């Protein structure tokens, strides 16, 4: 759903004190990745915001495209209109699942969706971005300049773009919301990011660009996905489960599976 009333309601419910949160990260611990037997890597970072030392937890999942692939799952494949991250994950026998992009009031996806080379929803020529995987390489392009290559494997359209070649664009939005993103680092590894609580979009982008020694995943390109009350994550780990839950469900999920899994 487009980021309007749902996000405003969520921000209010989590307290107006968070309005002072969108400032530069202060001291953050170096990021430490936990490697799972599946090859999936998980990290949890806390971004301190504001003089009161309030912080926002960001859950990070890093996958290697030689071992993993991303797929789009529609809730209709589960026999439902809407589903949770855990339902998407369980249905797909996946390693992890998050929500995808925006959708309209009829729960139809707003923007390009490609899974396994098959187009599930059409490209919209709007001021959004497209995260794509083709030939084993991830990319983030503006929707208006995106041209699907013949070997396109996966794509999701949403917006805005958070990082472009390591730089943050100028953001028009100043709202606070729980955030979800998909991006890639300089080595071509894909990272999924989901926050537990609200933060500004510029602060989220800044945190994703930070290098590992100062607490970030060091992304070069990143795309904002649907956040607010749609933000969700389900990722069973060897020690515990990384999870962000919400009272609502969504029509489209993104899952991480072992490459070649049926």
- Shape verdict: globular
The helix-strand sequence is HEEEEHEEEEEEEEEEEHEEEE
Number of domains: 1
Average pLDDT, to the nearest integer? 90
Within the largest sheet, what's the order of strands? 1-2-3-14-13-16-11
The number of helical segments is 3
Helical/strand content category: mainly beta
Uncertain residue segments = 3-26
Biggest sheet descriptor:
7 strands, antiparallel
Distance between the termini: 30 Å
Using only CA atoms, what is the Rg? 17 Å
Total DSSP E strands? 19
Helix content: under 10%
Task: Give the strand content.
Answer: 35-45%
SSE layout and pairing:
Elements lengths: L4 H9 L20 E2 L5 E9 L4 E10 L4 E7 L10 H8 L3 E4 L13 E3 L2 E4 L7 E6 L2 E6 L9 E7 L2 E3 L12 E2 L2 E6 L4 E6 L3 E2 H9 L9 E6 L8 E4 L4 E4 L7 E7 L4
Antiparallel strand pairs: 1-2, 2-3, 3-14, 4-19, 5-17, 5-19, 6-7, 6-10, 8-9, 8-10, 11-16, 12-15, 13-14, 13-16, 17-18
Structure description:
There is one protein chain. The protein has 262 residues and is mainly beta. It has one domain. It is 10% helix and 37% strand. It has 3 helices and 19 strands. A hairpin with a 4-residue loop joins strand 17 and strand 18. The two termini are 30 Å apart. The N terminus is likely disordered.
